Amino acid sequence: MLVKQALYTWLLCAAVAFTGLGGVLAEEKPCTTHADGNYYDLSRLSSKTDYEFKSPGGKEYVLNVCKAVSEEVWAPKVDRPEDVAGFTHRARGDFSLGDVNTTVFVRDGNPVITMTDGTRCSDNGEQTGSTVIRFICDGSAGRGGPKLIATLPPDEDNACSFFLEWRTEMACPTSEGSVFGRIISVLAIIAAVLFALYLIIGTYYNRYVLGLHGLDQIPRFSFFSFGDTVEFFRNCVERVKEWSSDAWHTRSSFGGRSWSSSGGSWASSGRRGYNGLGATPDEAQTMLGGPPGFLDEDDEDEEAPLPSGGESGRPSGMNADGVIRL
């Protein structure tokens, strides 16, 4: 029964997580949109410093894009003063041009943002201030700036609707950004979901199956520390060195006996030649003396008696001239 409850909980969490993940991937990022195969990103116009401009009549306006204005607004008479995205000064207080809006739509190839829910246009009416900003792609304008085109009614002191035009290179189609970054974001979300599921299921199991309570019911984690990782790689390097050394000694040996152990060696500098076999003085004397008994046989040949008849070895009765006397 407890296993079934844990399984149902896991399935429910997985369904909620992947539903939310699909929604994140499907939604547009704030102040961006796709249209006719093009991608538009107006979030680059968002600035820490508000944009200030004047109308042809000399009236001052303050505006920001995709964020609320940084300048303090005086008595705008709105429900959320912190969301005011633009305003103009009037005698009874600042008049809000509308709240922040991050939804962009494209009309005739130009991205457009509308702002609504500004200050009430009259004390008795329900209409509130609103603004439409049309952004025009102009590669030579840089960031550019807003320009007031028209108001309704035309009298700016009583105007309730405003129409602005903004020439900027930021309104031109651009690339959507790195796909790799989006993949990393998705993987991070999946990892967070799996981690949460592991905590939930592990806690269920430890509490209701193993009967653990308190901190003991929380699953434990074990990861390689940085020191353990360094030690692991150091041991791997040492083992590779040992294997390499053993293989070299095996190749340099012949019949179980290596040149280094037998005393013979080749000169390491300049390859000057073979230095010979090392031996003790007794061993050298034995090799020079020949095999056992060699010197004894020579002595026997030297000590053999001469034939009878003199040291010269002539037959008996023969003189020096070779005449035999009878």
TrEMBL record:
Pfam families found in the cross-reference section: ATG27
Subcellular location: Cytoplasmic vesicle membrane; Golgi apparatus membrane; Mitochondrion membrane; Preautophagosomal structure membrane
Bilayer topology term: Single-pass type I membrane protein; Single-pass membrane protein
MRH domain ranges (all copies): 29-174
Region of interest called Disordered, as start-end residue ranges on this chain: 278-326
GO biological process: vacuolar transport
GO cellular component terms listed in the entry, alphabetical order: endosome membrane; Golgi membrane; late endosome
SUPFAM superfamilies: Mannose 6-phosphate receptor domain
Secreted as UniProt keyword: no
Signal sequence, start to end: 1-26
Membrane-crossing residue ranges in chain numbering: 179-201
Keywords per UniProt: Autophagy, Cytoplasmic vesicle, Disulfide bond, Golgi apparatus, Membrane, Mitochondrion, Protein transport, Signal, Transmembrane, Transmembrane helix, Transport
Family stated for the protein in its record: Belongs to the ATG27 family.
PANTHER family to which the protein is assigned, alphabetical: MANNOSE 6-PHOSPHATE RECEPTOR-LIKE PROTEIN 1, MANNOSE-6-PHOSPHATE RECEPTOR FAMILY MEMBER
Protein's recorded name: Autophagy-related protein 27
Native source species: Trametes cubensis
